[in-house]
Amino acid sequence: MLESVRTRIKVYFILFLVVMAGGVAGIMAAEGFTFLDAFYFIIVTMATVGYGDVHPVTQAGKVLAILVIVTGVGTFVGAIANASEAMLARRDLQVRMNKLNMVIGVFFSEVGLHLLGLFSSADPGLENIRGKLIVTGKWTDQEFRKVSAEIRAHEGLVRMDTLDLGGLQSFTREKRDFLLRLLENPILLEHESFTDLLRAVFHLAEELAYRGDLSDLPASDLGHLAFDIRRAYVLLIAEWLDYMRYLKINFPYLFSLALRTNPFDRHTAVVVREGTPAASDEG
């Protein structure tokens, strides 16, 4: 919706400039006005103010004034109306995004952080990216974007022989109803990447649920599960970074807790102690 409003604003603004420029040039030629007088006359005419202190006296000037009133007033009002609509749409979008990120926060608290811990513990390439994921309060928006782009290129491989597959199966079975309720939330349709993550995690949960005994799976099936896990793992990291960026900009107190629960930081601690980075970042 916001994009369509912005498009209409651009169209009305261009029409407004065209009518104004044509009107100024025409009234200067027809009435011999100076540029300032012509500009003043066109503006008060298009804005429907009509002081009457400057007015056309020639036939051509009067015809031009009529054309400006017919075309310019509608253009001016349309531009103002669409600008107001854009402001309201932007505010509405911000409200929806705040609600959406509340849902994303609940997801990471209930499911995401635990999965990141499980997957990263079995990731042989974790040390290659761990340092990049130690988020601090000094990170800029540019740094978040840079790291996010680099992380999306991470292979996300997980060694199935070191992964607690049984624990993963139990956890996803326990959280199945929670994931299903999130997928049914219509507001998530506005966040395509997070919806992709939810689908990937829910699909993995379904795959594991259909397998009763995981102790004797063939290598081919383990490979299939590894592919599903890899997809969910990479999407989890990317969305976690985006969520951390959102918290830093909008909710510093929530960002402080997120720093202290960073699944990639081996030195993190939830308890805030004097002199710790988490304590200073919160301020």
Structure notes:
By secondary structure, the chain is mostly helical. The protein folds into 2 domains: 89 residues, Orthogonal Bundle (Helix Hairpins), CATH 1.10.287.70; 161 residues, no CATH class. It is 72% helix and 0% strand.
N→C terminal distance: 37 Å
Arithmetic mean of pLDDT: 86
Strand content: under 5%
Structural class estimated from helices and strands: mainly alpha
- Oligomer, anyone? single chain
Please outline the helices and strands.
Elements: H1 2-31, H2 35-46, H3 59-121, H4 126-129, H5 141-151, H6 165-174, H7 176-183, H8 192-209, H9 219-250, H10 252-260, H11 277-282
Notable features of this structure?
Helix Hairpins; single chain; elongated; disordered C terminus; 2 domains; 283 residues; mainly alpha
What's the short version?
72% of the residues lie in helices and 0% in strands. With 283 residues, the protein is mainly alpha-helical.
